[in-house]
Write a structure and sequence with these properties.
Helix content is 12%, strand content 29%. The protein has seven helices and 21 strands. The protein has helices spanning 8-19, 54-58, 139-144, 168-172, 185-192, 217-220, 282-289, and strands at residues 71-72, 88-89, 124-129, 135-138, 148-155, 175-184, 200-205, 208-216, 225-230, 233-234, 244-246, 259-265, 294-299, 310-319, 325-331, 339-340, 342-344, 353-361, 366-374, 397-399, 405-407. Bound molecules: ligand MTE and molybdenum atom (MO).
């Protein structure tokens, strides 16, 4: 047997120990039912569907039995009576894997948006300011540059836990993770030739000042992506079609959508987006922008109901603005003891990492928590340890004896 092959016997033993017989024949199955006599699955017929219309053969849609939807996270309806769209959260309670489907990616806005309709053939990106050559790019020209494809999360600074929340979409729904494709901003800045005095950039969306953000040159020259595609297709309008920046690991407001202009400047520029906590000192700026190590259990999470005692795969997401997630631990006793969770998939820099933890619920009250450590050695703090700024605190979920899952902060 090749040495890389998993040891099946060890797996079965582990499965049995964790799940009370999940994988063993001959004992009561932990999950599933034994068929009654005469019962089979062959009668589950193929029903005629309406998925085979010419339109849906050209461009598919999900099953009508799949019902996950985004929801407003601040109670404000979107769109409102003026057509403005406010923050809409991703349904993390139904999250599968690390990538958010584009249609369920959260929507962030600085002050209510009218999602613009932009013709990519007409769209231009200008790079100007303290550069040797001021440049204007068409979308086709941008796509001719060497491209990169990377998985990155975006998280709004408003993604905060509170004892008032009753759904995970309210406490954590303003983060999503997608596979972004585009050109490194560095590639474009090198084409323009940044002058020595150029120490900051201001990135601007089509709504002018409302979509603008200042970013330090060091970040611009590192890993900021000028993205035109997301999850294998052009950006969706709500996510910035046809062009946005993705600022890996930094708070979401900086990932300017509907990008039309980048100006190279010699200082931090105040924009509509600056709301006090952004530090203007270039040496400090990156620290206040960066999302700390964070994680949350998405299943079971508040508002859900466990059907009974027995085996559960506890699932969640972990991420950090500091780079790769190196460890996730789970506690079922409110943080008294911690055990390592398993990664599902390979952790990537500034990307959601899916994790799982095998748990057998014995029916007593339990408090579930997860804790993320990143490659820099930063550890996710408890609420008490948090020092203000972005909220990356450990979120407790309380499992009651009746199987209902509640906000552990309540
Ligand atoms: N042009 C523009 N870019 C913007 C915004 C905006 O209102 N206008 N909102 C920002 C905010 S507050 C967040 S959290 C992220 C959200 O990105 P998403 O909508 O793709 O999730 O976009 C940022 N980029
Ligand atoms: Mo945001």
């Amino acid at each position: 047997m090749a040495s890389k092959q998993p040891d099946r016997r060890a797996f079965l033993k582990r499965g049995a120990a964790l799940a009370g017989g999940l994988s063993l024949g001959g004992v009561e199955p932990a999950l599933g039912q034994t068929p009654e006599s005469g019962q089979s699955v062959e009668g589950q017929s193929v029903e005629p569907d309406d998925y085979s219309t010419p339109e849906l053969i050209a461009y598919g849609k999900r099953s009508r039995h799949v019902t996950s939807v985004r929801e407003p996270v601040n109670g404000r309806p979107s769109p409102d009576e003026f057509g403005l769209v406010f923050h809409i959260g991703t349904p993390l309670q139904e999250q599968v894997g690390a990538i958010t489907p584009s249609a369920l990616h959260y929507f962030g806005t600085t002050r209510g948006s009218i999602v613009p309709e932009i013709d990519p053939d007409e769209h231009r990106l200008m790079i100007h300011g303290m550069v040797d050559r001021e440049l204007i790019f068409t979308m086709d020209e941008l796509k001719r540059f060497p491209s990169v494809t990377r998985l990155h999360f975006i998280e709004c600074a408003g993604n905060r836990s509170s004892s008032r929340h009753s759904k995970i979409i309210e406490s954590h729904g303003m983060t999503s993770c997608a596979e972004w494709t585009g050109v490194l901003l560095r590639t474009l800045l090198e084409e323009a030739g940044v002058q020595d005095e150029g120490t900051w950039i201001v990135a601007e969306g089509v709504e002018e000042v409302k979509g603008a953000s200042s970013l330090p040159m060091a970040k611009a020259m590192d890993d900021i992506l000028v993205a035109y595609a997301m999850n294998g297709e052009p950006l969706r309008p709500q996510q910035g079609h046809p062009l946005r920046i993705v600022v890996p690991g930094f708070e979401g407001i900086l990932s300017v959508k509907w990008l039309r202009r980048i100006k190279v400047v010699d200082r931090f520029y105040m924009t509509y987006n600056d709301y006090g906590h952004l530090r203007q000192d270039p040496d400090q700026a990156a620290l206040s922008y960066q999302v700390g190590p964070k994680s949350v259990i998405t299943y079971p999470s508040m508002g859900q109901q466990l059907p009974g005692t027995g085996f559960y795969e506890v699932r969640g997401l972990a991420w950090s603005g500091g780079g790769v997630v190196s460890r996730v631990e789970v506690s079922t006793d409110g943080g008294q003891s911690w055990m390592d969770a398993d990664f599902r998939g390979t952790p990537q820099r500034m990307a959601h990492t899916a994790f799982s933890f095998n748990w057998t619920w014995d029916g007593s009250e339990a408090v579930l928590m997860s804790r993320c450590t990143d490659e820099l050695g930063q550890v996710q703090p408890t609420r008490a340890q948090m020092e203000g700024g972005l909220d990356n605190s450990i979120q407790p979920w309380r499992v009651e004896r009746d199987g209902s899952v509640q906000n552990g902060l309540a």
